[in-house]
Amino acid sequence: MLERTKVSFFLASRSILRGNKGITFFTIIVLTLVYLQLVFFSSVIGGVTLKFNDVLVDYQTGDLVVEPKQDELYISNVDALSKKIEHLPEVVGVSPRLRLKSSIAFKEKEVGATIYGIDANEEGLVTKFESAMVEGEFISKLDRGEIVLGRELSGGYGAVMQSRSLEDVTVGDIVNVMINGQAKEFRVKGIYNTLFFMSDSSAFVNKEDLEEILDAENKAHEIAIKIKDGADEEYVREEILSLGVQEEVRTWQEFAGILKIIEGTLSMVRNIFTAVGLIVAFVIIFVVIFVNIVSQKRQIGVQKAIGIEEEIIIASFVLQAMFYAFVAMVIGYSLMQFVFTGYTQSHPISAPIGKVSLDLSNSEAAIRAMMLFMAAVIGSLIPSYRMTKRSLLDLIWGAN
């Protein structure tokens, strides 16, 4: 067995070293492009998914969210509970929020919105709304009767649903917010744009404004929690529950339903591109190996004539294809991981959801490499098997 393998390696190496260098170069270049095509879409989806996750955590949920017990409207005694959670070493910030569905009216227009009542200092430790301001300022702890609107409410700044916004609102305008059937006036202090339509459809007021109206002192509808970079959400969730917390504690992934739908759709498109890429790879390898075999037909006949077994000759051509695929994968992986991905990390691509970088995981790269490798094996096995089954006379003297 070992001797037969050595002979196969010997025949394959001689064919690569003494064969047509142009064909070898062309084959490796084409397979490199095929591999890049296979991993490029995966890296785009990886980058977009990462961005979606970041904006959800940075502008919506934080890393964890505490919600009221089942069948209860509020989290009670929220100040004491917040202090308990703050003392965990992994926790960076805690922001209790009051939240209600309401409507905001300005002139002749009225739009539905989610209004959050927050402590600006605490919210600043959990989310990044303050850095997303495009006009005016974010509310401060002492502001009363002021409101900050997302761009989907104010309109302008590239709002996705401009026609369903208040359109002409600017900083300093007075809007009416309907709360419990009563209209309350708020002065617009600022407008923010996170590029995430769910976050941009909300508004923020001082928590004390909502506490008075809802009679909800020391209560909250949710507590958003920010943890240290690299800390495990599930571990911190268990730590919070171990404090005796009876409320629901959820990780941000449990709020990513719509993002999972988008990710699933993109993954389906990616799989289609992968299937097409593999078919292209298979055809290219088949054609290249077939041309290579035809050019060596007489040599194959001589090899058979001197007693080299057909399996050894077939194995030599499969080894050649594996060599081409391996070199192409090394070049393709290096280009994608160290050139293209590295470039987009330092020069992110501007996309509708913000700056996006390519993100290729090693597991995805390995899976695509294995697929290309299998295509190379199958694409070389078929033509080499058919050629070696021909008679000696046909191989040595027959026409191509």
Automatic annotation (TrEMBL):
Q: Where is the ABC3 transporter permease C-terminal domain?
A: 271-391
* One GO term describing the cellular component: plasma membrane protein complex
Topology relative to the lipid bilayer, per the entry, is: Multi-pass membrane protein
Subcellular localization is given as: Cell membrane
Q: Where are the transmembrane segments?
A: 23-45, 272-291, 312-336, 365-385
Keywords attached to this Swiss-Prot or TrEMBL record, sorted alphabetically, are: Cell membrane, Membrane, Transmembrane, Transmembrane helix
**Which InterPro entries does the record cross-reference, listed alphabetically?**
ABC3_permease_C (IPR003838), Lipoprotein-release_system (IPR051447)
Origin: domain of life: Archaea
Note whether Zinc-finger occurs among the keywords: no
- Keyword Transmembrane helix appears in the UniProt entry: yes
Q: Which GO terms describe its biological process?
A: lipoprotein localization to outer membrane
**The protein's name:** ABC transporter permease
Lineage start: Archaea, Methanobacteriati, Methanobacteriota, Stenosarchaea group, Methanomicrobia
